[in-house]
User: Fold these one by one.
Assistant:
Number 1:
Amino acid sequence: MAGNTFGSVFCVTTWGESHGAALGAVIDGCPAGLALGESDIQQALDRRKPGRTPGATPRAEEDRVKILSGVFEGKTTGTPISLLLCNADQRQSAYEELRDVFRPGHGDYTYFKKYGLRDWRGGGRASGRETAARVAAGAVAAKVLAAEGIEVLAYTKAIGGIWADPEAAVAGITKQSIYASALYCPDARAAAAMEERLAQVRREGDTLGGVVEILARGCPAGLGEPVFDKLDASLAAALMSIGTVKAVEIGDGAAVAAKKGSEVNDPMTEAGFEKNSAGGILAGISTGQDIVLRAYCKPIPSLSLPQKTVDSAGRPRTITVAGRHDSCVLPRIVPVCEAMVCLALADFRLRQKAVRL
Amino acid sequence: MAGNTFGSVFCVTTWGESHGAALGAVIDGCPAGLALGESDIQQALDRRKPGRTPGATPRAEEDRVKILSGVFEGKTTGTPISLLLCNADQRQSAYEELRDVFRPGHGDYTYFKKYGLRDWRGGGRASGRETAARVAAGAVAAKVLAAEGIEVLAYTKAIGGIWADPEAAVAGITKQSIYASALYCPDARAAAAMEERLAQVRREGDTLGGVVEILARGCPAGLGEPVFDKLDASLAAALMSIGTVKAVEIGDGAAVAAKKGSEVNDPMTEAGFEKNSAGGILAGISTGQDIVLRAYCKPIPSLSLPQKTVDSAGRPRTITVAGRHDSCVLPRIVPVCEAMVCLALADFRLRQKAVRL
Amino acid sequence: MAGNTFGSVFCVTTWGESHGAALGAVIDGCPAGLALGESDIQQALDRRKPGRTPGATPRAEEDRVKILSGVFEGKTTGTPISLLLCNADQRQSAYEELRDVFRPGHGDYTYFKKYGLRDWRGGGRASGRETAARVAAGAVAAKVLAAEGIEVLAYTKAIGGIWADPEAAVAGITKQSIYASALYCPDARAAAAMEERLAQVRREGDTLGGVVEILARGCPAGLGEPVFDKLDASLAAALMSIGTVKAVEIGDGAAVAAKKGSEVNDPMTEAGFEKNSAGGILAGISTGQDIVLRAYCKPIPSLSLPQKTVDSAGRPRTITVAGRHDSCVLPRIVPVCEAMVCLALADFRLRQKAVRL
Amino acid sequence: MAGNTFGSVFCVTTWGESHGAALGAVIDGCPAGLALGESDIQQALDRRKPGRTPGATPRAEEDRVKILSGVFEGKTTGTPISLLLCNADQRQSAYEELRDVFRPGHGDYTYFKKYGLRDWRGGGRASGRETAARVAAGAVAAKVLAAEGIEVLAYTKAIGGIWADPEAAVAGITKQSIYASALYCPDARAAAAMEERLAQVRREGDTLGGVVEILARGCPAGLGEPVFDKLDASLAAALMSIGTVKAVEIGDGAAVAAKKGSEVNDPMTEAGFEKNSAGGILAGISTGQDIVLRAYCKPIPSLSLPQKTVDSAGRPRTITVAGRHDSCVLPRIVPVCEAMVCLALADFRLRQKAVRL
C-alpha cells in the first residue's frame, strides 16, 4: 500500500535511494522454468547508461546487476527473484548544499511535507536513479513476454518540439533502427535536428522535454480487466509513475477529442481492423492489433540557471543546480518506458490465464 | 485481481450490467462516523442523468439509489456500504440484433475474445451505464473529502475542438458556474458554440469527443505514494479507466514536452509557488496547490451512419446503431470524471494517515 | 484493506448487517463460461437454515438468493457476480435493550471500541447472519472446484466433548451420510449422544461448543503459494475468520507437537504416501492427498442465564439474552466452514494457473 | 499474489533460498521517523542462532544483517527498507544426493509438483532458513509496536509432550525469564525435563515437536478488521505460514469446543474483563487484554533414521538425512513466531489509523 509495488500476478517491488548502499527489485510471481541470466538484464541496463549523447551526465553509473535468488541452474524457480544494483557513487558531500533547500520542479519539497524528513542526497528515493531497478525488472518481464510472442519497443518520438516522422514511425521500427541512434530515435533526420536543439539549449544552461512512443507487437486479443484495471488505465499508470511523465495517450490519444465518431471508429472487415485509431485497446481490452502509447516528459528540472526557491524554514533562496545532469530525460527514459510497459503487459498476460477454466 | 475494485483503503467494487437486474457498488473502508444519506448520493446521480441537452439520449435512466448496509442512524459504521441501483430498462429485445455482431469502437469484440462469450444486451458490463455505480460511490468519497476540506470540481473544457477560455477557467469556477450550463461548461460563450456544433454533428448522424477538466482544491501537501502509486499515476489510471478516455494530462500536461526547464519549473517564494505548471503534483506527491487534470474523451462510437464490421463468425456486416444514444459523452461523463478523482483522492487521504506514527 | 474481501483471484466481498435491509456478496474473478443458477446457491443456503434440531432458533431466516449480475443465459460472463439476500426479519425493537449494553462473549464491546459507534441491532455486522453471504459465495466456488474435480465436505466431528468415531470418519463419508443427520454428523451413534447432551444443556439455559472437520478430495498436488500464502495458512485464516472458531488444525494437528519425527513423517512409496499425518499439505503446498482440517468452535455466547457485564458508560449490568438463539453453533456453522474452504481452494486453484507459462 | 508478501500497510516481502547467494526482506510501509539501526535487527537474529542447545545444528549460520535502504541518519524515511543477509554457507555439494529424491515430511515433493522443477540445495526456498528474513523484518515491526506501547513475547510452552506450568506462564513472563533458558522456556523445571527428553530422542536419531506460546501486551482495544481479516484469522495465518506449524489456537483455544457458554464467556465489570478465555480477541477485534496464542509445531522431518521414499521418477528409495540438523524446531522457531505476530500486529495497528476521520 505504500506504493513501491507494481502488478498483481507478475509483481515487482523496488527499493533503494540514489546515494544509498544499493538499489534493487524483488519480482514475485515470475513463472517457473523460464531461462534467465544476468546478461538478459544487463543488456537492458546498459541501454539506460548515461554518456551516449553530448548533453549526457558524466556521473559514474556503471550498473552491474546481480541475481540473488529465484534462479537455479539457469531457470526461474517460481520463487521471488531478487535483483541487486550496488551504488558505486555514494558521495553525499556533493549534495550537502541541498540539505536544507528545495530544488524547484523536484520532489524535495513534497517528500519533506509527506514524511516530515527526507533523504536529501541526490533526491533519495525520488531520484531518476530509482528507475534502474525498473529497467532490471522490466528485462525479466520482457522474457516472459517473448515466451508468449509479444515484443515491446520504445523510442524517442519528439524532443523540444521536434517530432519524428509520424508515417515512418510504427510500421518498420526495429530494435536495430532504434539503437542505431544515440537518441533512440529511428528517424535519423529528426534525430539530427533534435541533437542540434539539445546542444543549443544546453549552452543556455537550460533543459528540454520530449515524447516517448511505446509499441507492443504480438499482443493477443483479450488482455485487460474491466472495469478499473483496464489495460489502458494500467498502462497509463505505469507510464505516469515515471517521475518525468506529465501526460499519457493511447492510439490517436488527445486528438480524438476534436474528432467525429466516424473518423475515430476503426471499421472491421474479414481481414481485421481497417486502421488502429484505438491504439490496440477497446473497452480496456486488447484487440490483437499493435498497442501504441505515448508518454510526454517534462524537461529535467535541474538547471545551471539560477532559480528562486525556499529552504526548509521557508526563507527565500536562489539555487543553481551544478553540473552533472543530463539536459534531456530522453533518451535515458526510453528504456524505462519500455520496462514499465513490459511489466504491465506481463502482468496482464498472466492474469488472463485465470479468466477461463 | 479481476479488475472491478478501485482503491486500497477507501476501496470500491462495482458490479452490474447495462440491462441486468441492477447494478451497484460496495465501499469497504469508509471511515466510521461520517454523516451519510441516500440524498447525498442521489444528487450526484441526478447530474449524470440524460436529457439535459438536445443531443441527449431519451432512454429511461431514472436512477434511485438505495443504501443497503454500512449506515446506521444516519452515520457510517465502518462496515461495507452497499449501494444498489435497479435497472428500470431491461428490454433485451432492443439489442437482439447485436447478438452476433460487433459494433465498431465498442468492447463487443474484445469482451468476446477475452471471455469466449459476452452479454450483448446494450454492451453488458462494458456499457457506459456501469459508470452510474462509480458516481454513486464517488459521492461517498466526496463526503470524506469534504470532511477533510477538499473539494473536487469537474467541467467541460472542450467539445469537438471548441475550447472554453483557458484563462477564465480555473480561478473562479464554482459548482454553480458549472451546473448553470446544460453542458457543464462554466464558459457560457464557449458553451453556446459547443451546442451549435453538437446540433450540426447530430444532424449528420455523427458524434463528437471532448475534454473534461478536473480541479481539486484544498488538498494538503503530502498525498501520493512513491514510486508506483504516485498521485498522478493513480489519477491517470482513475480517469483512463473510464471507457471513453484516450489521454490524460496533469497541469501543463503534454505541452511541457516542447518546453524548456526554465519555463516549466514552478519557482518557490516565501508566499508559496509562483505558478502551477506542475498541476499540484511533484514527484507523485501533492504540493498543496490546486490539482488540475484533463481527460480527453473520444466520440461516442454508436453512430446512426452505416459502418463496416463483422459478426461472431468473422463475416462482413454493415451496421447502423439505431437511436437512443447521446451524440457526445460530455456532459454526462463529467460527473464520472469527478467521481473517479474523488475516489482516488479519498483513498490517498486515508493512506496518508498511516505514514507517520 | 478494511477486511471484507477474501481471495486474490477468486475474490469475494461480503456486506450487510443482521437487521439491515439486506446482505450480499460480490464475486470478482469467477471464470467465464461456468454454468450457474440461483438453485445452485439456494441448495447451500438451505443447509444453513435454522430449525433442524431441538435447540435451534425459531427466527425467520428464509433466505432466497438473487443473482443480480455476472450471469447471462445461464453462464458466468467473467464479470462480477452480485448475490443478494434480503432480510425478512428487520425488527430492531427486539434489540432495543442491547442499545447500551455489551453482551459478554460477543463483538458488542470491540466494535464500539474500534469504530466509536455500533449497529446494535442483533450484532449488526458481527452477527452470525453475516455468514449467509459466505455460504452463497462458497456455493459458486464449489462449482468452480467441481469443474476441476475437487469436492469439499464438512461435518460435525464433536459437540460438547462427544466425538464422532475417528476411524469411520474420513474414508467413507459422503454428502448423503452427512445430511442424513440433523446434526450433520455422519456417525449416527455419536449424533444421538450429542443430541441428548444438547437437550440437557439447553434445559440449563446454557450452550455448547463443538468441532467441525472439513475434507477436500481430488485436490491436485501443487496448490498453495510459499511462503506466506501457504495453503494451510490461508485455510487457517479462512476458518478462523468465522467468529466462533478459536483453534484450527491440519491433519494430525496439535497432536504432532507431542510426537516424534518418525511417527509424523508420511513415508512415500511407488503407490503414493503411506499415510496422511500431514493432512494433505507439505510446506504449504497440497500433496494430492485428501486435505483434512478441523475448526474448534466456542459455545454460542448468548445464554438464558444471567451474566455480568457493563454498559457503554462502563456501569455494571446483569444481562439475560432472551430467546431465539441456537444452543450450539453446530450444525449451522458446518456449511459455513465448507464454504470458506471452497473459497480458499477455488482461489488457489486459479492462482496455480499463472505459475507456469 | 505469488505469496511472498505479508501485510497490507506494514507490508513485507521476503526472498532467498537456503543455499543461494543471500536472502532478505523488503519492508514497504514502515512509518517515517522511527529510530532504526542494524543492531535493533541483529539482536533478534542472534536469538534465532543455532548452537544454544545440545541437539542444535552445528551449521555456520552467522547472520549479519545489512540495511540497504529506507533509513537515513538513523531514522526511517518512509521508503522501502531493504534488509540483506548473505549466506555464508553455500556448499551445494552437501546436498547433491538430494537432487533426485524427495525427503519425507519436507516440501521437496510438493515444490516439484507445483513448479515442475526445484532448487534441491537444502530445501531451497522451503528451508527453515527462509525464516531468518522474517525475524529481521519482525524486529522492525517490534520497533513500531514499541513506539505504540505494545510488547510481544514468545516462549517454549511444550516440547515432546512436556508442558511448562500453565499457571506460572503468562502473568510474570519477561524477556529475561525467557532468554535465561537455553530452550526459551521460562519454567526452569519443565525446561530441564525437556532437555533430558531431547537428548534421549536425539540418541535415537529421532526428533521432537513442541508448542510455542505468544503473548502480546499493551495492545489497545479495536485492532482487527471484520469480517475476513479478523485479528485472530490473520494471526492464525501468520503462524501457520511457518512451515512447522500444524495447529494454532487463541486463548483457551481447542478446549472451548468441549465447554459450556457460561464457562467460556468472559464477564465484564467496572474493573474490566474478569478473565481472558477469549485470548484478547472478540469478534476478530482486540479487547485490550493480553493476546494469547499457541502454535503447535511438528517434529523436524530430517531424521538420522532410514526412511522410505521415492525419487523424481517415482522409484522407491531409502533415505537417511545425515547430520547437521536440530532435533527440535524449538527453541529456534520461537523468535520466528514472535516475529510473525509482530508483523501482523504492526500491520493492524497502522490499519486502524484509517478507520476514523
Note: DSSP finds nine helices and 18 strands in chain D.
Number 2:
Amino acid sequence: MSKLASNLQIDSARLWSTIHDTAKFGATPKGGVRRLTLGPEDKLVRDWFRAACEAAGCEVQIDALGNMFALRRGRDMSKPPVGLGSHLDTQPTGGKFDGVLGTLAALEVLRTLNDASIETELPLCVANWTNEEGSRFAPAMMGSAAYVGDFTVEDILSRKDAAGISVAEALDSIGYRGDSAVGTQKFTSFIELHIEQGPILEAESKAIGVVDSGQGVLWYDGKITGFESHAGSTPMQLRRDALATLSEIVLAVERIAIELGPNAVGTVGEAVIAAPSRNVIPGEIAFTIDTRSADAAIMDALDQRIRAAAAEIATRRKVEVALDLLWRKPPTRFDPKLVDAVEIAAKELGYSNRRITSGAGHDACNLNTKMPVAMIFVPCKDGVSHNELEDATQPDCSAGANVLLHTVLALAGVAK
Amino acid sequence: MSKLASNLQIDSARLWSTIHDTAKFGATPKGGVRRLTLGPEDKLVRDWFRAACEAAGCEVQIDALGNMFALRRGRDMSKPPVGLGSHLDTQPTGGKFDGVLGTLAALEVLRTLNDASIETELPLCVANWTNEEGSRFAPAMMGSAAYVGDFTVEDILSRKDAAGISVAEALDSIGYRGDSAVGTQKFTSFIELHIEQGPILEAESKAIGVVDSGQGVLWYDGKITGFESHAGSTPMQLRRDALATLSEIVLAVERIAIELGPNAVGTVGEAVIAAPSRNVIPGEIAFTIDTRSADAAIMDALDQRIRAAAAEIATRRKVEVALDLLWRKPPTRFDPKLVDAVEIAAKELGYSNRRITSGAGHDACNLNTKMPVAMIFVPCKDGVSHNELEDATQPDCSAGANVLLHTVLALAGVAK
C-alpha cells in the first residue's frame, strides 16, 4: 500500500458534524432521534443520503425493499464491490449513533478517498439497509434478511405496522420502492461499524471491539385470553386476570434468562391490554418476548423453558396463553480472515482493542450467511442505546471510522 | 299479617314480559340496551314508566334533577313512605337487568298489591334515580348523590357530557326537569333490588343475596420510571426494567388482597408502556390500582401494604415508583334491622340465600347516609354486567321481586 494510503485518516470534524447535522431528521426534545423506518423522517434522511453519495461521485441504486446502495467505481469493475455501511432508521426514542455511525462513517470513508484521489482496485459500495430496528415492522434487520433470502420479498412487502399499513404501502408513500431486484447487488465482503450497545469496551477502556460473533435471537408474539369482569364484584379466587398472568410470564422470562446466564438475556418489551379500564379486570393482552444467546444450546433451553413456564402459568390461572415464534436467528460466527483484517487495522493504527461478541443483532449478522463479513465496535456511554441518552465520543467514532477505512483499503486494495 | 298478604306472590310472567317489553327502548342488535341517561331512549322509558305508575294509581312527582317518585298512598299518610326502586338508564352497551330489574320489580310490587286490594299502613314510593350509570355524565349515581347532598343541584346541572351538553339542557330537552326540589321526597326506609354483577350467588347456587354492606374503594394512579435500554446487549443484572417492576406490583396487589381476603379485592386495570418496542427494555409505565373492602380497617391495611410493597420493589430494582391516591370512598354498612327484614323475607319464602357485600356502587349506598337502607341481590349469568351479554333467569328475578314485596310489606305494614 502506498505511503499516502497507509497514513490516511478520515476527517474527524467532518464525520462528527455530519452525524450531528443529520440528527435533525427526527430530532427529539431530549436530544435523541425518532426516525421510524419508512416514515416521513426516514424519507428526509434517505433523500439527504442519496444526494450526499451522488455528490461523492457514487451511483445510487434502490432495491424493491428500499435498501440503498451507493457504488464507488474501482479499477477492476469485473469483481463485486467491498461493502460497508449500516442503517439510518432508529427506535421510537432512539439515539444519534445506532446505525447512523456505521452509515455516515462509510460515507466519510468515500469522501476521504476522494480527497486523497485514491482509486481502489475493487469497487466500494455503501449500504443503508431498510428497517434494521424492527420497531415499526417485524422482523428487525428486514432489508438484509430479505437480501440473503431468509424471507421472500412478497412476504416482507405484506408485513403490517400497528396502524395496519403494509411495508409496500409505506415504501410507496415515501417513494422508496426501488427498481432493482432484492439481492442483485453483490458484495465481495462486507464490513459494518457500529456502537457496541453494551458496557464492555467502556468498562475495559478499549477504543475498538473486533467483533468475531453475534447472539442468536428468538422473537415471540404472545396473546393471553382471560376473562374481563368487574374489579369490585369479582372475588380474587374467581378471577381469570390476563395482566396477573402476564406478570408471572414477565418474571419467568427474567428468571430463566438469569439462570441460563451470563450468556443469555430475555425481555418482554411490549404489552397491550385490550379495552383497559381502571375498574375492569384485564381480559385480554397481546405481548412480545425477545430472548438471545450466542450459544445455540442455550437458545434451545430458553425456548423450552419459556414455553413450559407459560403453559404452567396458563393452566394454573385457567387462562389461554398463545406463544408464536415469530423469528429465530441462529448465533453468528464472523469470517476469521475479515475479523483478522479488522484486528490488524486496529493494531496498525495503534488503537486499544479486544475481541467481542455482539449482543444486538445487526444487518452484518444476516449478510454473514452469504459472504465474508466482520464488524467493528466502538464504546458507547454506559453501554446505553435504543435511548435518547445514547452517546459516543468523537475520538472513539473517528477511531472506528479509521479502522473501517483501513480494513476496506486492505480488502479492496489500492490501484497502482 | 293476613293470610292473603303472607302468601302473596308477584306475577312472574307479568314482571318478565314488562322487563322484555321495555327493553325495546334502546334495544341493541346483540340483545342489549343502549339507554344513556336523559337521552331520547331514556325519555321513552320514563314516559312509559310514569304512565304505568299512574295506571297503578300512583301520583308521580319529578324533582329538579329528573329523579322520579311514584307515590302509592297508605292508611297513615302522616309518615314518609317506604321507598323501593333503582334506575332505568344503562351503559352504552348495557343489558336488560342492571337497574331495570329493581325499578320494574318495584312497579310489579305495586301492581300485585293492587290486584290483591291490599292497603299498606305506610305509603310506598317507587323511585327511578337519574344517571346511576355515569357513562354520559359524571359522577355516577348522580341523582341519589345530589338527593343526599353530596353535590349541590347547581353543580350537577352544570355537568356536561362529551358533546358539551349540560345536565340542565339534557333535562329540558326531554322535559324531565321537574318542579319538586331535590331532597324533599322523604323516605322511612329504602330497599333496592339489583342483579349481583358478580359471580358469587351463581357459583354457590343461591337465589337471593342479602346485601349487608357495600365496599369502600381506593383508586390510585401509578407511574414507574426505570431505564430504557437495548434488549440484546444489556446484561440482566444491569437492567432497570419498568415492566418487570410492574409485574411484581401486580402480583403484590393480588397477593395482598388475597391475604386480607375474603373481604378485599385488588386490581391493576390499566398499564401503558411509554414508547414500547419488542427489543427495548421498558423504561416507563403508567398504571392504575383499584382496591376495595367493606371493612375500613382492611382498606387501611390494603393502602399501607400496597404502598410498602411498591416501595420495597422500587428500591430493590433501582427504579422510581410513584403512587397517587385519586379517590377514597368509605365502606357502606346497611341498616341491620332492614338487612334482617330482607333475610327473614327470603327465608319465609324458602329461597336459598346468603349475606353478601356489594362490590359495585349503587344509589342505595348513597341513600344509606340519610335513612335506613338495604339491598337484595339476585344472580346474573357468569357475573357479567355492563355488557349486552348480561343475563338473569325469570325464576331468580321473580324470587328477588317476591323478597322485595315481603320486605316492603314487613316495613310498611298491612292496614287492618
Note: Chain B has two domains: 3-215+331-412, 216-329.
